[in-house]
Amino acid sequence: MEKEKIIAVQNLTKKFGDFTAVKNISFDVYKGEIFGFLGANGAGKTTAMKMLIGISNPTSGKATVAGFDVKENSEMVKKNIGYMSQKFSLYDDLTIKENIQFFGGIYGLSRTEIKSKTESLVKELQLETIINSLVGSLPLGWKQKLSFSVALLHEPKIVFLDEPTGGVDPITRRQFWEMIYSQAYKGTTIFVTTHYMDEAEYCDRVSIMVDGKIEALDTPKNLKKHFKVDSMNEVFLKLARNVE
């Protein structure tokens, strides 16, 4: 059975004046896949992601996300995706309950849906006793889990995670990846950027960007085999040296 494409990118390019941040990249992502989008700071991955979530227009090339063209139909792209930024997107000066209700409203859920989703989310994360606490008072790991859950409130087809585990401890990182696995198992596509190369091992496939281009794209197992190394960190180092 042919896999369903949820993201299709052809020759996508982004220029800022004379500088080309993203250079003619092409790739597909499939339904229910955990797709790792890797690269060092400045490699172009955040710029590429901004085009895919409909907040930055490509200079040239084409991309569809959840069946919608990112340039022609960016509003429909936004309605069909979830997004969790590096800073977790939540409002520190609102309570847990208020954050859930606020984002539920932004995502266009009805009052009944927001009430139901709030109850199930709080129960799932075991936050019943602190539902009226300010988000700013939560430990980083709890903010991370709540932010991920809020990005899924409207049951999007795809969720984009931009460096979601930055600054949290290894145990919390592992717990967060268990949440990612659980969601992918339900059929949600996960598009994740990270600079932690050990996290690349958790992805179904990874692409590695170097200097605005995708220099490798495959399963972690195949990439390690191709480069004759034992870890994704070594794959990345070899690629970076080859491009230099």
TrEMBL record:
**Primary site of residence:** membrane
- Per its UniProt record, what Pfam families does this chain match? ABC_tran
Where can this protein be found? Answer: Membrane
Q: Which GO terms describe its molecular function?
A: ATP binding; ATP hydrolysis activity
Tell me the membrane topology, using the record's own terms.
Answer: Multi-pass membrane protein
Q: Which domain of life is it from?
A: Bacteria
User: What InterPro entries does this protein map onto?
Assistant: AAA+_ATPase, ABC_transporter-like_ATP-bd, P-loop_NTPase
Q: Which residues form the ABC transporter domain?
A: 7-236
| Record keywords | ATP-binding, Membrane, Nucleotide-binding, Transmembrane, Transmembrane helix, Transport
> Got a GO cellular component term for this one?
membrane
Q: What is this protein called?
A: ABC transporter ATP-binding protein
Source organism of the structure: Flavobacterium pygoscelis
